[in-house]
Each structure stands twice: as structure tokens, then as C-alpha cells.
Amino acid sequence: MSGAQGRRCRAWRVTRADGAVLGFTDHDRDLEWEGCRFRAGTGLSAGQIELSTGLAVDNAVAAGALSDAAVTEGDIARGRFDGAGVELWELDWAAPEGRRLLFRGTFGEVTRAGGAFEVELRGLAEALNVPGGRVFQRTCPAVLGDRSCGVDLSAPGMSVEARVGAVAEGGRVLRFAEAPALPPRRLERGTLRVLDGAAEGVVAAIKEDRQDGDWREVALWFAPGAAPVAGDRVRLEVGCDKRIGTCAGAFGNAVNFRGFPDLPGEDWLVRRPVPA
């Protein structure tokens, strides 16, 4: 093989949701263009890439080695690569301006084991698989604190910061010696955000909020990949059960309620008049 054909290589550009841009190449030297350095030997290699016309979803699988300089196990556990944008280029390393884009999409599921990781790549048509439109239901479909809800979670009584006193069940249960200044069970269906420590940036959904003796316990639905430890500072945000009574009573936000509380149930179809 000679000439430009013998100088072919591949390069990856990964853009995370936090704005960090990482470059990788299978060439034996670093490459650079458009202000991005594509590092050699750091690791991404692709299997077969399936490309199609029409609206079918293009997909691929990439694998690489975990390293402190590129993709770390901690960053994966904290979800920093979730939904990251990815571009795969084929190019002549001696003349990168003539590069050809082979694939553009996002990171899907990322798995890691034995110092390596494997990531599912999803094409741009993947977004068309997301259900759209509005659902007519009794409960509110809005997420507490989002634009359609309108509740300000930074307002007094909506969230509280606290230091983790102890951790149990592999990080699924957090205990606080100084009980958060919120009524019991107020945090159920709420959100936990880790503000510092090794697990900084981790966000998890709260399942239970209970008092256990001198401890206030918060149980998560799942143990996060990077769990906070005793001494870490977290932010605890209140939850909502999506009912009109809670929206009006606990938040004074009935005007923004997005559900249909008077919608008849399925049993309405088989009801019949009775003498009573």
C-alpha cells in the first residue's frame, strides 16, 4: 500500500454535555485540527459501522482503554459521557483537511470492566425513536422545577444542603446526623445532587425519606456508580407526587398544573345508572 491510501487513519471527536472536547486517533502520532488535539494511543477503536439510508438508526460499537489522560472510570460512573456527541473521521494523516466524516451521533450505554470500556454509538436518527406529543392523564407530566412547572427549587423550603454522615447499602442509603430542615417524607420522589468530593456531579432520584432514631435516612432508587462518602456535601431537593392536591397545597402552583384531574377512568365506560 502506498501514497495517500497507505496514510489512512481514523479520528474521533467526543463532545461531552459539560463542554469538554476529547480527541482520539488510531494513528501512532497526535493529530490536530480545528483547535482539537487527537491523541494517539489513548484509545478508541470501532467495530463494524452500520450505515443506512432513510430513517433507520445507524449504529456502531466502540471500545477503548480507561486512562487518566482520556476516559476515566470515575467520569463514566458520574455520567459525564452520557449522551456525549461523537464524530468519526477517516483521513490522510499527512493532509487532514481532506478528511471524510464516516459517522455522527451520540454515546449510548457505556459498560466498563477490566480496565477497558465499551460504548454503544447511536446515529442521529435515534432522536426519532423518542415518543412525542402530550399525554392526557390525571397526574402532572411536568418535572418539578422545570420550565412548564415553574416551581423555584432554590426558594426556601424547596431544597437544603447537608453533609453526609454515613453511607450504607453500597451508597444507596445516605444518613444525616443533622436532619435536613424539612418535614418527614418531604424528600421522597425528590433529587439528590452531590456538590463535592469524588462523586461531585452525581445526580440520583430519592425513593424514601425517613427518620431512624437520631439519623435522617434518604434511600435512593439505585446506588449511583460513584457514591458519595461521609463528609461529602449534597443538595437535597423536595419531591412531588404529581397530584393536583400536592401541587396546590404544598407548592401553591395549581395554575401551572399540567394534568387532567377530572379525567374519567376506564371504569367510566361500563358504568350504568342505579336507583341510588
Q: Estimate what percentage of residues fall within beta strands.
A: 35-45%
Query: Regions with pLDDT < 50 over 5+ consecutive residues?
Result: none
Content-based structural category: mainly beta
Share of residues in helices: under 10%
Main sheet strand line-up: 3-4-2-1-7-8-9-6-5
| Rg, Cα atoms, Å | 25 Å
Mean pLDDT: 83
Please tell me the total number of domains: 2
Pfam families: Phage_BR0599, Phage_phiJL001_Gp84_N
Domain Bacteriophage phiJL001 Gp84 C-terminal: 188-267
Protein name: Putative phage protein (TIGR02218 family)
InterPro entries: Phage_phiJL001_Gp84, Phage_phiJL001_Gp84_C
Q: What's this model, at a glance?
A:
The chain is mainly β and 276 residues long. It has two helices and 16 strands. The strands form two sheets. A nine-stranded mixed sheet has the order 3-4-2-1-7-8-9-6-5, with no helix packed on it. Strands 10-16-13-14-15-12-11 form a seven-stranded antiparallel sheet, with no helix packed on it.
Index terms:
mainly beta, Thrombin, subunit H, 2 domains, nine-stranded mixed sheet, seven-stranded antiparallel sheet, 37% strand, globular, Phage_phiJL001_Gp84_C, Putative phage protein (TIGR02218 family), Phage_phiJL001_Gp84
Give a structural overview:
With 276 residues, this protein is mainly β. The chain has 2 domains: 7-127, no CATH class; 159-237, Thrombin, subunit H (Beta Barrel), CATH 2.40.10. Helix content is 4%, strand content 37%. It has 2 helices and 16 strands. The protein has helices at 73-77, 244-249; strands spanning 8-15, 21-25, 31-33, 36-40, 45-46, 59-65, 85-92, 95-113, 116-123, 159-163, 166-168, 173-176, 191-194, 203-212, 215-220, 233-237. The strands form 2 sheets. A 9-stranded mixed beta sheet has the order 3-4-2-1-7-8-9-6-5, with no helix packed on it. Strands 10-16-13-14-15-12-11 form a 7-stranded antiparallel beta sheet, with no helix packed on it. A hairpin with an 8-residue loop joins β13 and β14 (203-212). It is globular, with a radius of gyration of 25 Å. The termini are far apart.
